[in-house]
Amino acid sequence: MFQQFLDGLGDLKNKPVALKQVKKILKIEEKSLPKNISNYFVEFTKHTSHKWQRKDKMIFIWTTLKHLEKQGRTDLKPNDDDWIALSEILGAPPELLNSKWIGMLKTDLKQSPWTIEEDELLNKVMTQKFISWTHVALEYNRISPIMRHAKQVRERWNNYLDPELNKCPWSEQEQIQLLQLVQKYGKKWSVISKQIKGRTENQVKNAYNSLINSYRRNHIQSLDSDEIIISKLLTKLDPPLQQANASTPMIQAIPTLQQQFIMQALLIERLKGMAFFAQFPGFMATQQQQI
C-alpha cells in the first residue's frame, strides 16, 4: 500500500518539504527529511507497536505531510479520515498514529489550563464507553478546538471531573487506612488509591505527605524515619491499636556482650561484699530475714 501511495504522489514525491513551516507546529530537530523514503519504510514497519525511533518519526511526518499536500491542504491538522487513510498506507493503527502526532505537537499542552468549555466537552465524551484513554482522547480531539494528550485527558477526568471523586477533607478513618496501606504496600499510590474509595493517586500522595510533614514540623529535633512516624501516628489516631500494643507482652532485649560483663562484675563485687560482712555477728541472720 505504501508503494501505491508513493506512485500516486507523482511530482509531489520529490518536492522538498517546507520544514521551516512544519517546525512551527511539530517538535522536530532535523534540518531535512529523508530523500530515499522507501528505504526508511522497511524499518518503520518493524516499530509500529514499539517505541518509535528517529527514522520512524521521520517517515511518519513525511507521509502525513505528503498525504495532506496531495489534497491541497496546508493546515497540518489531520482528521479521523486522514488517520484511517494513513493507517492503510503505513500499516499502523489509526489510534497509534493520532497519539504520536499529538505527542509531537510543538504547543506545550501541559501549560495550557483546561477551560470550562473543555471540561464540558470531556464530560460529554465520557458518557460513552471506550476501551482505552487513547480512544477517549481521539473522540475528545475530534470535537475540541484544543488538542490534548491521552494522559492529560485521563488525569483531568480522574483528578477533577469524575463524579465519584471524593473532594471532602480526609476523615480520621481514611487517614488510618492510608497509613496502614502505606505500611503494607509502600508508596505505591496507584495501588493504594484503588482501595480508598473516591480518592485519586494525587490525593493519596498529598494526604500522606501532609501527615508526615506535619509530624516533622511539630518534632523538629526528631530524626525518626517515615516508618517510625507512621507507627506513632497510627498509635495516636487509633486508640484500639494502642491498647492492643499495651496488652501485648513485651519481649526483653538480650543484653549486649559489654552489658553482660558489667553485670557479672557488679555481681562479683556484691558477692565479695557479702563474704566480707559475713564475718560479723548477725549479718547472715539479717540476710535470711530479707529472703
Automatic annotation (TrEMBL):
Residue ranges occupied by any SANT domain in the UniProt entry: 165-216
Protein's name according to its UniProt entry: Uncharacterized protein
Membrane-spanning intervals of the chain: none
Taxonomic lineage of the native organism: Eukaryota, Sar, Alveolata, Ciliophora, Intramacronucleata
InterPro entries assigned to the protein according to its UniProt record, in alphabetical order: Homeodomain-like_sf, Myb_dom, MYB_TF, SANT/Myb, SANT_dom
Occurrences of domain HTH myb-type (ranges): 106-161, 162-216
Cellular component GO terms, alphabetical: nucleus
Pfam families listed in its UniProt record: Myb_DNA-binding (PF00249)
GO biological process: regulation of DNA-templated transcription
Organism of provenance: Paramecium tetraurelia
Taxonomic superkingdom: Eukaryota
Domain Myb-like: 106-161, 162-212
GO MF annotations in UniProt: DNA-binding transcription factor activity, RNA polymerase II-specific; RNA polymerase II cis-regulatory region sequence-specific DNA binding
